[in-house]
Each structure stands twice: as structure tokens, then as C-alpha cells.
Batch of 3 targets.
Target 1
Amino acid sequence: VGNPPFIGNKRMREALGDGYVQALRGAWPEIPESADFVMFWWHHAAAQVAAGHTRRMGLITTNSLTMVFNRRVVQAALDKGCHLHMAIPDHPWVDSANGAAVRIAMTVLAADASEGLVLTVTDERPGEHGEITVALTETTGLVHADLTVGANVAAAKKLAANAGLSVNGMMRAGEGFLVTTAQAEALGLSKTPGLNKHILDFRNGRDLTDAPRGVKVIDAFGLTAEQLREQFPAVYQWLLERVKPDRDQNNRARLREQWWVFAEPRKTLRAALKNLERYIATVETTKHRVFQFLPTSVLPEHKLVAIALDDAFSLGILSSQLHVCWALATGGTLEDRPVYSKSTCFDTFPFPDEDTGLTPQLRERIAHLAEQIDQHRKRVLGLAPASPADPSPPTPLPQGERGVTATPSACTSGTTPSPLAGEGRGEGAPAQPPGLTLTGLYNVLAALREGRALTAKEKTIHTQGLVGVLRELHDELDTSVLAAYGLPADAGTDDILAHLVQLNTQRAAEEAQGRVRWLRPAFQNPQNLLQKQELLPQEDQAPEADFDSEKSLSKQEQLTPPQQPWPAQLPDQVRAVAAVLAASPAPLQLPAIEARFKGRGPWKKGLPTLLQTLEALGRAQAVQIDGVAAWRRP
């Protein structure tokens, strides 16, 4: 037990001299330069406990122990299997030398992993002889490096609202599926009709965190061997020679018999992405938890977690520090890198809604900032055009819509998903500066937040990557997301986790009673309108859906949802009409589709042409009902 000198890192050279500080840091290079002098003692004592030379150690330090630059020393001890047996994060202290009042922290570190005790000062009163009398409250639990006891995130339940949206990417089980652009062209890409659906861009984790390799993948899912050989003989031979020999030796019968198809073709993911133009992706195991948009023309590798949401509002929530806190607490680790487990990190995560403080203005703000962050990163990395149009404010959600929808036009900034996002260099894109990567950007961002001095290399990244802008955007996003959850801007990690655990419990209870706040209702709950129909009084119920009956169709149209504003931009119009068709259990005639929207101008005149466009894209199917044209989802 000891009371080392209280000297901050910025005063060490002044108090101890350059030579001593240089020798000190040379002897203990593992301690960050931003750490206070007291942390050298703390680190040394902790090493004795970790090595088994002593059972416990206790030190009085300044209360800055809980700050990021000192907390890393504490975390290093916890990572070695020790635990904080007792802690007082903030306690009054009177310096006997000059009578100055300071604040201290007290910590006791013990071997093995166990729960500890945190004492919190709730009242302070001066005594008769200069001492201070304090009142303390006790909290027992796993004590973190910031001297707090965390929420029980392990008790969080999976939510139906998030179900079916997060899936790991494709598992190939064969290097022969990968081809370069030149090889793909030699196999007939851009010349053989239909081949563009089966040779696609392919991305793994390193493609996102470092630089894209520019590889493509042969995806023969949905084709029999006979169809593949008949339609694309060159591709068939390529796989026959480069994939089948290894698959013939595989112990799994399905992989031997279906040798031309990925080992895990992810049918669930394909269904979830079917009507989207982009989706959210994050690397499963990575130093920095970063989410970004990828176009659906890019297939994800199995170490990417794909989230089938295409709206910027969802990207903003997931990109916030609030969700990162949740992911770190609920996910795992591989070596020293956090792992994003979709089942514990995403499936349990409660999104904000009106009951938490989310307003239409906050929704638009979050979506707008998320689009800016995504485009800013891609722009500085040379993955997007150099001067994209400034995102316009997002379109307000239609009345009655739940927070996150499958239609970007409803809750994003209104920008069209960039076809260059995550696809490598775009036409007119700036060349990526050597060494500038997504990981590098966030390494520098972390250094800025820790208050650590940047190295020469980091200063270059800071300048070339405009990391100051990135930091400002993230800070504004974090503040907005906290407000959407009804939390103050300075909410700490444990406050955030406790709030999210409580919200998860509330949402799980709601779902048990039948209320589910679907993130993509048209995809996750396509029978919603039929369920509403079943709840009508018997005399008001429509007959069973008979799509050959005009009478049945008119009854179905009585269930038309509230109108939404007609989007201003053509891409948003296409997505909006496609979403209406996807949400309807019955074909819709032109008047019924028009009734879903409201707006001025001659927009109705262009609706037939737009529907024909959707037909050509495979996102709508025309049918005849008593000789009258109607449209439905394919």
C-alpha cells in the first residue's frame, strides 16, 4: 500500500528534469507517454500481483486514474487476469504540506478474475480538525478499468425486431472461385448475357480496413451444373478444373455433390438483400468498430457481417459510440481485437424510437451525418468522386412509419447510394495516398480522443485524411444519437449500457405481448396487412385473397396505408414504388398505387413508365385482373 507522488504527465519534465523523465520512459516503454507519474508505480505493483509475487496491491492516486490516458495502464492489468477488488473513484484529500484540497482515487488490485466493490462518495462534510467526513454507497460487481461496475449485458435478449437482418458473408471453400478482372473478362464478363449476375465484386475484411484487392468471385448459386455448363461453358470449365478436384476430397457430401456452389451460399442473406441497392457491413474482428455502406453488387466474405438495412438512419445509430459501447460489452475478443457477434451485438440491440426521445428532426440529423461520414471516408480514401453533391436534408418519414425502413428515401439524406461505395476506385476519384487506410484514419482519430501526441506518420494521415473533419462528424453524430435515446451528451459507458439493458428488457416484454418494432416491416413481416385483416370484425373482413377477382382487389385496397410524400428524385421514386409493391400482399392497380402517395405536379403521368422500369429491373411483375393491368412484387 502506498501513496506515490502526484505529478501529472505534463509537469513531469518540469518537476523531475529531462534526464530523469527520459530514463524513466526508457525503462518502462510499455507505459503510454500521456500517463501520469503515479501510473509507473501502479504498473509496477500490478506486475507483482500478475506474476504471483504478491496477493494484492493498493495505491492512492489522483482521481485522473479513470481518464483514458491512465486507464490504459489499469486495463493492461485486467487483461492479464487480475481484478479490481476495491475502488473509490473520487474521494476528497487534503494535502498536509499546503492545505490544498485535491481529489484522489483508491484502488486495490487482486489476482484472478472476480467481482469487486466500488465505493462512491455521496456526501462530504468538513470536520473539526481539517479532516473531511464522507458518506459512501457500495456497488458490487465486475469493476472496469474506469472504476465503475457495468450493467449485466449478458442478460440481454434477442429481439424479434432485429431478426433476419444480420448475416455473415459467403464461405467459399475453394480458391478457384476468385478471379481477377482480366480473368473475368476472359471468361466472358461484359460479353456473355447474364454472366454479370454470376461474376461479382468480392470483399473481405482487409479489403475494407486496408485497400481493396479488386478481386471478383464466381457465384453460381441458383444454377444446376447442367445450366452452368450450357449457359456459361467457360466458367463451368474454370470451376471444373480449379474447384472440383479439392471438393472431391471433402468429407461433406453436399460439398462434393454441389462442387460449383459456395460451401455456405447464405440463402438468408440473399433473401434479405433482394430488394436493396446497398447494405451495411462491418468487419467481424477488427481493432476499430466501423460500419459502412456497400452496394449489393458486392458480395461479402464470411468474415464480414452484413446487415440488410439500406437507410442512413440505421447506419448512423450503428456508427455511434453508443452502439460501439454495446458491441464491446456484448461481443467477444480474438487476441486483442474485438469481435462483432451478430447474435449478441446486433440481435439484442434496441434501436431508438419515439418512446426514447427520437424525433423526426433527430432522425433526419442522424441520417444526414451518417451519409456525410460514409462519403467523407470514401472520398479521402479515393473510393468516391472527388466532389460529390452536398447531401440534402432527408425526407421526413410518412406518418405512422416505424423508425427504420427498407426504403432509403424515407429516412436518409436523400442522396442516391453511390455505386462506388466500397467498390474500389470510381471514375474521377482521387488516387489514394500511399499508406492511407480506414484503419489508419481511425488510429489517428483514437489518438486525438486520447490526447496523445501524433507521430510524424500520424500527422501525415491526419492531414491527408482530414481526420479533424471525421472527428467532428462523429462527435456530432454521437451527441444526436444519445439525444435519440434520451441520454445526456456526457453519458458514461455504464450509464449507456444500463440504459440499453433496461430498454432491451422493455422491448422484449413488448414483443412477448405481441408488439414488435420491426426494423424492416415490409421484409420481416410481409403478412402484416393480412394480420390486420384478420383482426377486423367478421362483417368487415374481406374475402380470402383471390387475385383473379377484381372485387377481392378492391377490398384489399381498403387497407391502404397512410400516404407518403412523392419523392423528388427519380432513384427515390423507384425505391418508394418498389417498397409499396413489396409491402402489398395483393397486386395493385394504378389508382391504388397512386393513392399511396401525395404530391403536387404531374408525377402521376410518369408512374406507368416507372412501373415498366421496375419490370425491366425484375422488381415488379405485371398481371391482368379482369382485363385491367395491376402490379405486384415478383
Note: Residues 125 and 332 are 44 Å apart (CA to CA).
Target 2
Amino acid sequence: MPWFDDGTMILHAQSTRFKVCLELLAQKSAFFADKLALLEPGPSGITNDNRFVQGCPVVHLPDKAEDWGYMLDALINRKTPLPFAIACSPLRLACVYEFVDLLEEIMERLTHTFPSTIEV
């Protein structure tokens, strides 16, 4: 599970926390770019009060911790093979949190692995 000592934000999903780089998520996700620029309370769970851990804001997410583990791994290790069962988690989250490049990359991998036509 990703935990970077030099991370600037903590994602909290279920009972698991991930310390990640705020700038990385903001660069890769329109959702996080918008939400993190504001850092104010709202439906996303982003807070601007005293909810900090190790000096980093904590973002509470309604998603499964396992899904975020796979998602962050897919963002960090872009060249690692992505089995179908594991690809589903980052695929769902990429749609929800607007990780457009990652969504396209996963779709391309799946299309290559599972073509829509079968040659006989």
C-alpha cells in the first residue's frame, strides 16, 4: 500500500490510509485538481479544518481501500502488467475521479488483451 514519507496528502478509504503526493493526483485527475485547489469541506470529504495527519490534509473516500491500492499502483507503476481482475478497480476509480489518461491507458490495455473480434 503506497505510503510516501514525502507525501503531501493522505487518502483515507475504509480503515486504510495512503500518503501520496497532492500534486501528482492534481496533475492526473480533473476531480482532484478542482477539489484540492479549494481544500474546503464538501461532499468529497476534503476538509480544511484540523483533520491533518503528519501535517497533511486527510481526504476521506467512500471507496474500498483495496480499489485505491490498485488505483495508486496503476498510477505509479504504469508499465506493470494489469490483469483483468485487478484492472477493474482502477478502471472504476479512473471514471469516478476523472483520471482521463489512466482511463484511456487501461482501456487500451484491455482492448489489446481482449479484442472485440476473434480471428478464425
Note: The chain has one domain: 9-113.
Target 3
Amino acid sequence: MTKKLLKKKTNNKYVYRFIIFVLVPFFGLLIPLLFNKYGPFYNYCVSDCKQHGNAGNNYDHKDTEFVKTSINGYTWKLVNILNNVFLCISILIVVFFIIYIFIKVIKYQSLKSGKGKMSVRDYCHFCKELIR
């Protein structure tokens, strides 16, 4: 196999999957981006909204720019909590996965260079050389 073909196969097998995997936490940012002050769905209210109505006890959204949705406040809070949990867990998984890959690359390079067991100082020195 030529080097170019091997690189192409490696990219197809690992790199593209890794890039897609790293982009997973951005799905957790969709709800905050869409429903923030500058998002396209800023003027949407939950079905039991009592903030954007007329003065008095009549909370009619017809006279305002806000649109009521079919989701109530409790469901919306639950969606936000689940979104935050998904975002935190996916970020942690991606960070640990990147650290794991970095450790495996360092281990492979140390075996390739013929170094067996190393002390902490030698290990740090080897990592600095590897990064350069």
C-alpha cells in the first residue's frame, strides 16, 4: 500500500468518526442558542405563561408579540434540565475520550522508540519531545 492510500483509509476509518463524535456536545447547545434573547424563538411562551399578558388578570397573548406553545412550564423546565444533563455528560465523555487517545498515542510512540518503563520525569520529558 502506498502512504497516500493508507492515510486515506485511516482518515475514513477513524478521523471522520472522531470529528463527528467531538461535535456531539454541540447538540446540547441548540436549545440555549435557539431560545435565548437573540434567538429566532425568543417570542415563544409556554402554555401556562402569565408574564406577557395585558395588565390585570387577563393574560391574553393576542395583543402581544409573544406566541403560546402547547408545552407547559413544567415540561419546559424538564426539557431544559435534561438538555443540561446531556450537555455535561457529553462534554465529559468527549474530554475523557480525548485524554484516553492522547495516552494511547504517547504509549505507542514510547514503544515505537524502544523505551519501556519510564519514570515520571522521563515520561514528562518524552511528552514534551512528542508535542514538539
Note: Residues 15-131 form one domain.
